[in-house]
Design brief:
Length: 297
């Protein structure tokens, strides 16, 4: 196996963790493990090929991203604006069943939780965006256009040396923000953002079959994989994620996430040596900015 250690992808940074997982989704030849130092970092590996060169060769082009089932307009099906009706969602799901990227729908929306207006629920990792860039797919296309993929460019991001670009990215990385006391533009590493989107493939969102438009259920029952409700706090959810010792492909990561729990007593048995939970950005003023930091478990 050929390995590349990525100090620019610390497991404690939520978007870096998603990006490292996303690398294994984008190229199935890649495997991922995390170093066991105080701040674990990603180690990507592949058999008989440089993992970064492999990933650069698998990098999606604009047409591939534009044709994702999550697109606002897709193959004659009803439009998917930010607020998506149950009927429009169901029609898109039927049309994309069996599509290799149908996960872009199941990891961002669910009709197993319907809001007061009869629209499907969105995942926490599908937040509304500012201005006209309200759709996750729009944000993905926008940030994707800011990077020319090559092994050298990817290595800059994996080493933590890449220059950031002015962009909101996927819209939930806390590191895109500067000091609230100064005027600043949000800035992201586009390589990390694109790969983080692919990491969502392993995080489907589900619901309990609730319909809030009937007035019988006052709160959302939708929850995305990895998120958990805090005991005694119905409306507070936190995402939890682990770092593991063994080199795993995306299917193995999927299986690990099935059995891993935040309870530390079970970690050693399945090769987990560290974990974190999300901390939601709390603005000092009226501000709808979504962002998630982290704290160790």
């Amino acid at each position: 196996m050929r390995e590349v250690t990525c100090p620019g992808l610390p497991a404690s940074w939520l978007n870096a963790w998603l990006a490292a997982v996303g690398a294994t989704v984008l190229d199935s030849r890649l495997r991922l493990r995390w170093t066991t130092e105080t701040t674990p970092t990603a180690v990507l590996s592949a058999k008989d090929i440089d993992p970064v060169a492999a990933l650069a060769g698998s990098w999606p082009d604009k047409d591939e991203l534009a044709d994702m089932p999550i697109a606002e307009q897709w193959d004659g099906t009803p439009s998917l604006p930010r607020k998506v009706s149950v009927d429009a969602f169901a029609a898109r799901v039927r049309a994309t069943r069996g599509h290799c990227r149908s996960w872009t729908l199941s990891s961002t929306m669910t009709d197993l939780d319907v809001d007061e207006n009869g629209d499907v629920a969105h995942a926490p990792f599908d937040p509304p965006g500012p201005g006209q860039i309200k759709w996750l797919h729009h944000r993905l296309l926008k940030v994707h256009g800011q990077v020319e993929p090559s092994a050298e460019r990817l290595l800059e991001s994996f080493a933590g040396h890449a220059a950031r670009v002015t962009d909101n990215g996927l819209g939930f990385d806390i590191s895109r923000m500067g000091s609230q006391s100064d005027a600043y533009d949000k800035a992201v590493d586009p390589v990390i953002e694109v790969l983080a989107f692919y990491g969502l493939a392993l995080l489907p969102v589900r619901g309990a079959g609730t319909d809030r438009s009937t007035g019988n259920t006052p709160y959302s029952a939708a929850i995305q994989r990895g998120w958990r409700r805090m005991p005694g706090r119905r409306h507070e959810h936190r995402f939890t994620w682990p770092a593991w010792t063994d080199a795993l492909d995306h299917a193995s990561v999927d299986a690990l996430l099935d059995v891993w729990k935040p309870d530390k007593r079970s970690w050693r048995r399945i090769g987990v040596h560290a974990a974190w939970q999300s901390v939601r950005f709390q603005p000092a003023t009226v501000d709808r900015t979504r962002a998630f930091g982290s704290e160790p478990l």
